[in-house]
Amino acid sequence: MKKNILISAAFAFSIAFLPACNDSSTTKETNTDTTANMDGMNHDMKGEMGEHNQMMTKMDADMKAVKMTGDFDVDFASMMIPHHQSAVDMSEMYLPKAKDEKIKAMAQNIINSQKKEIDELKTLIANHKPSDKKEHTDGGHGKDGHNELMDAMTKMMGSMKTMKMSGDADKDFVTMMIPHHQSAVEMAENEISHGKHVEMKKFAQKVINDQTKEIKEFNDWLKK
After folding, report:
1. pLDDT tens column, 2-52
2. Residue 195 and which of 23, 26, 148, 179 are 20 to 30 A apart at CA?
3. pTM score, two decimals?
4. Residue from 173, 185, 202 nearest 108 by CA
């Protein structure tokens, strides 16, 4: 009788012990998977930060390479070309990692439309007949106006450089593109206020309309 009791107790203990062993194994596997996922996220974050820094360095160099002429129309167009190019670069960098179909489509539209607008800007510059430079260098349109263009760029660069990447490609792209678009709108508004070239001012108004619309779409997406 005593022998049967001992055997039963041993059997009960083994039954109770087996699930514990299984749980321990499962926990180890779960911890391993979690660690692997974290390592993957950290790797992605490092890669994204590297791309971010590389893009910001290129954008900064391209902006600084623009030479001011004293003609506000020409200087607006000359500044807008690298500004547009940086939007194209950001979008092309984002697309391979895109997950959200709406944002992916918006990025492709930015590439298509802004490449076309870069060509338009180059044509406008080539066909532009400078107005009296005195009007642009007497402390009026030139000095104050060019400061406004540079201020818009400086504010954008400062905002984008300090942004922390989340690791979510869609969210990071949208978050970066909003201040980028806002600076384009600000520059375009300066062109309308200070520029004299009719076609250049029409171009500026289109920039305001298109990018204000996209800023709203980006903000609406972030809220959802």
Report:
1. 444 444 444 443 444 344 444 545 445 545 554 444 454 444 555 556 677
2. 179
3. 0.72
4. 173
What is the crossing angle of helices 198-223 and 72-94, to 10°?
30
Q: Can you tell me whether residue 224 is helix, strand or coil?
A: coil
Q: Using CB atoms within 10 A of its CB, is residue 90 exposed (0-12), middle (13-18) or buried (19+)?
A: buried
Four-way CATH pick for 44-223: 1.10.8.60, 2.60.40.2100, 1.10.150.20, 1.20.1260.10? 1.20.1260.10
Question: Which run of H or E residues covers position 21?
Answer: helix 2-64
In this model, does residue 137 exceed pLDDT 70?
no
- Rounded mean pLDDT of the chain? 79
DSSP letters of 116-154? HHHHHHHHHHHH-----THHHHSSSHHHHHHHHHHHHHH
**Which element (helix H / strand E) includes 207?**
helix 198-223
